[in-house]
Specification:
Mean pLDDT of chain C: 89
Low-confidence stretches of chain C: none
Structural class of chain C: mainly alpha
Number of strands of chain C: 2
Number of helices of chain C: 9
Structural class of chain A: alpha/beta
Largest sheet of chain C: 2 strands, antiparallel
Helix content of chain C: 55-70%
Low-confidence stretches of chain A: 482-487
Shape of chain A: globular
Chains: A alpha/beta (487), B mainly alpha (206), C mainly alpha (261)
Strand content of chain C: under 5%
Number of helices of chain A: 14
Helix content of chain A: 25-40%
Largest interface: B-C, 58 and 77 residues
Number of domains of chain C: 2
Oligomer: heterotrimer
Order of helices and strands of chain C: HHHEEHHHHHH
Mean pLDDT of chain A: 90
Largest sheet of chain A: 10 strands, mixed
Chain lengths: 487, 206, 261
Amino acid sequence: MGEAGPAAVTARGWGWRHASRRDWAVRGLDLRIDAGERVLLLGASGAGKSTLIHALAGVLGGDDEGESAGGLLVDGREPESARGRVGLVLQDPDSQVVLARVGDDVAFGCENLGVPREEIWQRVGDALDAVGLDLPLAHPTSELSGGQKQRLALAGVLAMRPGLLLLDEPTANLDPDGVVEVRDAVARVLEHTEATFVVIEHRVDVWWRLVDRVVVLAPGGGVLADGHPDEVLKRHGAALAASGVWVPGHRPAPPVRTRAAGSRLLRTEALAVGRSPKLVLHRDIDLEVSAGGCLAITGPNGAGKSTLGLTLAGLIRPAAGRVRADGIADGLVPDPILWKSRQLLTRIGTVFQDPEHQFVAATVGDELAVGPRALGLPPAEIDARVGPLLERLRLGHLVRANPFTLSGGEKRRLSVATVLVTRPRLLVLDEPTFGQDARTWRELVAFLAELLDAGSGIVAVTHDTDFAVALADAELRMSARGAGVPR
Amino acid sequence: MHSTFTSSTRRRITYRWRVVDIVVASVLGVAAALIFFAWNQLYQPVTAPFEALLPGSQALFYGVWLFAGVLGALVIRKPGAAIFTEVVAAAVSALLGAQWGGFATIEAGLVQGLGAELIFLVFLYSSWRLGVALLAGAGAGAAMAINDLILWYPGADVAFQSIYAVSAVISGAVIAGAGSWLIARALAKTGALSRFASGRDATARV
Amino acid sequence: MSILIPHSGPQAIYRVNPVAKLAASAVIGIALVLSIDWVSATVALAFEAVLFLFAGLGPRRFMLRTLPVWVAAVFGAITILLYGVPSGQTYFQFLLINVTDGSIELAIATFLRVLAIGLPAVVLFVTVDPTDLADGLAQVLRLPSRFVLGALGGLRLVGLFLEDWKSLELARRARGIADTGRVRRFAGQAFALLVLSIRRGSKLATAMEARGFGSDTPRTWARESRFGAREQVLVGIGVLVAATSVVVSVVSGEWNFIVGG
C-alpha cells in the first residue's frame, strides 16, 4: 500500500533519556530492520520498547523534553522529518479518537498530510474496508467498542499509506473479543501491504503467527535476543516469562488453596442493577458469596458486570431487589448501600479497575493511612498495619513517592493495599489483572489466594479466564442484556 | 542529534506552541468546564448566606470560574495560554449548556482570560512564581467584575458595584491565583507534567 | 451526552453554519447590552418569540434548555430590585436594600434584557455541532487550525471525564471519606480529574502528532465549511432584530446607555 514502498530502520548506538529522568530509557541500541520485515519487539517493563517505537514515529518530543545519543533513521532520514511515512497505533483506545465521526477521524491524517479532498474520501473508504469496519461515515466514534476504536485508529494510520506500521501494545486494553478482532484486522492488512511492521506486546501468543522476527530489548540497553520467533522462544522463553512477558507454554501455575468456603457473607434477592433506576442493565440476579469463597463475574462488555460489582460493594443503589450482607453487617441494616462511607471500610473493600480513581493522598504512606484514620485508629496501630503491608506488596521503598508516579503494576498493588489495610471481610475487585504483566499477575493471584485461605470473601469482575480458573469457586456469567446465569 | 550531557535546565524561552501544549491546554479547558459544571450544582448553598449578609459578596466565590486561565498559563507557559484555556473552558461550558448561552459565555471567558494574560505579559512570560499567579488571578477577577457590572448589573448602585468588584478581585487572587499555583505545583509532583518545563522545574530527576 | 454525538435534525437550522449562529447571537447581544431599558429588550423578545418557532426545538426541549436563563433573569432582576440605583418614591429600605420607583423599573428592564440576550444565544447553540463549529472557525473565520483542531480533539475526552468523575465519587465512598467535608472532597476530586485529564491529553497529543498533526505542511480539509445564502439570511435577521430594537427604543425616548447613564 505504501506509495514509496516499505521503509527500513537503522539504529546506531541510539539512546534516549527523558528530561525528568536520571536513567536512560534506551541506551546503546544497534538494530537494523529491513524493508518489509515483520517484527515483534519484546522486553521486560522498563526496557524502553515504547520509547523506541515513539522515536520511530517521531513523537518523542523536542530537545527540551530529553536528549538523544547516536542515530536513529527511518529510510535514511530522521523520523521527525519522515512523518506520514510512519504510522503509529497506540495502546489506549480512548485517547486516540480525535474526531466525532468515523469518516472524519480516518480522514484526519490525510488532511494533515495535505492530501486533496477527493482523494481523501477514496482513501478513507479503502482504509475502513481494510480493517473491516463496516459503518456509515457519520457514525459517532463515541459509540464504538474498544476493539472497534483500535481498528479505527489502524484505519486512520493506513489512510496515510505509511511505509512503516508501528503498533504499541494495541490490544493491552481490550477484552478477549477485542483482542481477536484487532489481531484479525491486522492480519488482513498485512496480507495486502508490503509495509514494514513492528509491534510491541506483553502477550506473545497474539502476534506469534504474524511476525517473522522477534527482537528482545535488554533492560539496561542493547538487544538481548534477536531471531526467528520459534528460536527466540525456545532459548529465552523461560527468562522472558520470569520478567513478566506472557509466553505461550509458560503459563503461571495456579496457587494451592487450603481452605473451602465457609459461612455466607452476602446474598442478593431478585437484584436488578443499573447506573440509574431507569437504565437497568440486568435483572433477577440471585447470588451469594461466602467467607473463603471467590465468585467470578464474567461476560461480554456492556452486560453490566462492573455495575453489579459496584452494587454488591454498596456503592451503587440497586435498581430493584436487594443486596443483603447479613454476614458482615455487624449490627447495621443488611443493605450495604445504606451504610455510611466509614462503615464500609471494615466490611466491604472495593478495588477499582483504574487504580488512579481511588488515590486521594500525596504519598504512598499517606495513601495507606487514609482508611485507618477515617476509622479513628491510634497512630501506633496505623503504623503497625501499614509497614508490613507495604513490605508484603513490595512497596516499602516507595513510601514517600507520589501514588500517581508509580508504574502500572505498583499502582495496582497499592490500590489493593489501600483496601486491605482496613481489613474488610469482603473484597470486590473490578478487573484486577487488567493490563498487568505476568509477574504482577502471579503475585496478585498468590496474595488473593492467601486472603481467601484466611477467610475473606472475594467478588471479582473479570475478563481474564486464567484468573477465574486460578481462584474462582463459582462463576456468574452475565449475558449481554438479560438475566444472570449462575453456574 | 548528538549525545550531550548538559543536563542543566538552561532553556531559551520558546514562544511557539507544540502540539502537546495545544492539546493539553484544550484538555485542561475541557476538564475545567466539567469542574465548573459540578461546581454550579454545589455552589448555590455555599454562596447564598454571603449574598444575604453582604450583597455583592457572592463574587467572593466566583474565583472558581477563573482558575482555568491562570492554571493553563502556569502549566503551558506560552503566550496566549491563559486566554486560550479560559476560552476553551467557556466554550465547552456553553456546549454543556451553561445558562448564558454561546456568545455571552465565550465573551466572558475571553475577557477573564485576557485579565490574567496581561499580567503574565507584563512579566514577559518569564516568571511563574506565586506572586505573579496572585496578580494574574486578581487581574482575571478585575476583568470579570468590569465585564459583569457593565453587562449584567449596570442598574445597580455604587455600594453594590464596589462590593462586587472588590470581592471579585480578592476571589480571583486567592482562588484562581493562589489556588492554581498550588494545583500546578501538585500536578508537577504527580509526574503528569513531565512533558512541560513547569513539570520539570518542580521535580528533581528520578 | 449530546456534546459527543454529531448533531443533526430535519430542520433547516441544523444545516446553517455555526459561525452564522454565533454571529447572529453576537449582533443581538452587543446591541442589547448597550442599553438597559424595557423597550429595546421587549422589541427584541417579540421578534425572537416568532423566530424560536424555527429553532429546531420542541416546547419541552426549549423550556429545559432555557430554564437556566429564566432563573438567571429572575435572580438578576431581584438583585437590581433590592440594590438598583434609587430614584423616585421609596417603598422599602433596610441596610443596603433600597426599593424605589427607579429600582423597580430597572429590575423589569434587567429581567427582559437577560432573556432577550440569553434566549437566542442558548437556542442557537443547542443545534450547533462542535465539529461543524470547528470547521467554520478554521475555514470561514480563518482561525489557526492547530488551535481549533486541538480544542476539538480535547472535546472528545468529555465523555471519559464524566465517567472519571463518577468513578472518583464512588471511590471516595469506598475509601471511607465520603461522610463529611463536601467542599474539600470536591477539591480533591477536581484535582484528580485534572491529573487524569493531563495524562489523557498528553496521549491524545501523541496520537495526533503521529498522524501528522501540527507539522508545517499546509493542511487540506476533507469537508468544506460553506458560508452562503442561508448563513447571510440568518445574520441579516440578527442585524434586523438588533437594529429595530435600538431604533424603536431611541425613538420612544427610553434608550438608557449603560455607561454614564
